[in-house]
Design goal:
CATH superfamily of the largest domain: Hypothetical protein, domain 2
Distance between the termini: 49 Å
Helix content: 40-55%
Strand content: 5-15%
Structural class: alpha+beta
CATH architecture of the largest domain: Orthogonal Bundle
Bound molecules: iron/sulfur cluster
Order of helices and strands: HHHHHHHHHHHHEEEEHEEEHH
Number of strands: 7
């Protein structure tokens, strides 16, 4: 760090932010409850998703699983189905595991000690701090993506916040800013500031309550903070998915419980290497499909492509369809022949949901999802 902020910069920030929050804070459903279970659900949903997207999911999730015990008792499939479309499915699996742990370890109650909250699956230091502060009236700092951005700009931190040293410094700032009075309102206020004023692109500085002491604003460098590490190229990978019909039914398989999109259903397939010389793309794809579905299929025909971006790679999903005349492949917990109409009872990833749209008499708009 190039400089140590003065005490008055901390005091100014906290005081003005709280004043602003009392006038402009957002009225959100999870702010109308003191139930730690509901606040926990909202915090997990908000981890990688914006408020506007979370709102309907939050309402639906709580009407399906109104209490911690309801969530623990529900089958994982039902929880994943309620999460469908929200992405980052590990969050849903962790919620389910954590609910079961709370039943086993805390008699079905949400724990009240910070360390106990932190010990639950899917809860890191910042989320535990937010829950303990907002739901339980304790005082713990947070440092999520929004807060990191605000602090990097306010204190003009010109280092990559992912670096260990920088992160440590940001935690210290966050702790020092947290007031003794109203830490819950302060925590909600800094979340609101990051989400509505100090936004990633084009922060709305003229409306900002801490503008007069913001060092990035003073230097005019807010647009390039927080600093990013020199970006690595996001790799691109090809995948194949086979939509295999038998009469009016199609074959679906469940992904392994652990790993990317764990526990979700999909059309069988997998990664395929289309680089290099030799066999044609079509041949490589049909060979990959035969490996995945080793039965007699009349013919695999190209159906379209789906593009999807994950945090660590970009996927092109080559979708092929085929027909199977014989009775092959029994229904199990991991593999099912399902009537097209009943497919919506199963939780699919976003990429495979695009295939579902095509299966259900797509409109022109939906058809454009396929190139
Ligand atoms: S003045 Fe601008 S850059 Fe600084 S904290 Fe406010 S919105 Fe962010």
């Amino acid at each position: 760090m190039s400089r140590s902020p003065q005490q008055n910069e901390f005091v100014f920030f906290t005081r003005n932010l709280l004043k602003w929050y009392h006038a402009h804070g957002r009225d959100l459903p999870w702010r109308r409850t003191a139930d730690p279970y509901a606040i926990w659900i909202s915090e997990i949903m908000l981890q990688q998703t914006q408020v506007a997207t979370v709102l309907p999911y939050y309402a639906r999730f709580l009407s399906r699983f109104p209490t911690l015990r309801d969530l623990a008792a529900a089958p994982l499939d039902k929880v994943l189905k309620s999460w469908e479309g929200l992405g980052y499915y590990a969050r849903a699996r962790h919620l389910h595991r954590a609910a079961n742990e709370m039943v086993a370890r805390f008699e079905g109650n949400f724990p009240s000690r910070f360390e106990e909250i932190l010990s639950l699956p899917g809860i890191g230091r910042s989320t535990a701090g937010a829950i303990a502060t907002i739901a339980l009236g304790q005082r713990h700092p947070i440092l999520d993506g929004n807060v990191k951005r605000v602090l990097c700009r306010y204190f003009c931190v010109e280092e990559d916040p992912k670096k260990k040293e920088t992160e440590k410094q940001l935690w210290q700032f966050s702790e020092k800013l947290l007031p003794r009075k109203e830490p819950d309102h302060y925590t909600q206020a800094i979340m609101d500031l990051g989400a509505t004023i100090c936004t990633p692109a084009e922060p709305r500085c003229p409306l900002c309550p801490v503008r007069n002491q913001c060092k990035a604003f003073e230097k005019g460098v807010q647009g390039r903070l927080p600093m990013k590490a020199l970006g690595k190229r996001v790799p691109e990978r090809d995948y194949v998915a086979g939509v295999l019909f038998r009469g009016k039914r199609v074959l679906i398989r469940r992904r392994p419980a652990k790993g990317l999109l764990g526990g979700l259903w999909e059309f069988p397939g997998g990664q395929v290497d289309l680089d290099g010389k030799g066999r044609s793309v079509e041949k490589k794809i049909t060979e990959a499909l035969r490996k995945e579905i080793p039965w007699r299929v009349d013919q695999w025909s190209p159906w379209g492509k789906v593009k999807h971006t994950f945090t660590h790679f970009k996927m092109t999903l080559h979708v092929y369809s085929g027909r199977s005349g014989e009775r092959q492949g029994q229904n199990t917990d991991e593999q099912k022949w399902v009537d097209v109409e009943a497919l919506s009872d199963y939780a699919f990833s976003s990429a495979h949901q695009k295939i579902l749209l095509k299966l259900k008499e797509p409109t022109d708009g939906q058809r454009r999802l396929f190139s």
